[in-house]
Amino acid sequence: MKLILISQYPEAYREVDTGIRRALMQKFPYCVYYVVASNNITIFAILHARRVPDAWRQRFE
Q: Model-level pTM?
């Protein structure tokens, strides 16, 4: 599962903005947006990949 991979290798996924990373799910068209700070991973959005591309920005603000 992708969430396990995020927890094991949080730096493996690309940054879409400063400090904000995005992981694409394999079987479903969803993206997980998260922030890594110290030893914590905060997921702040799981959004459909084909919807408005910048919708995650509203949740981060």
A: 0.82
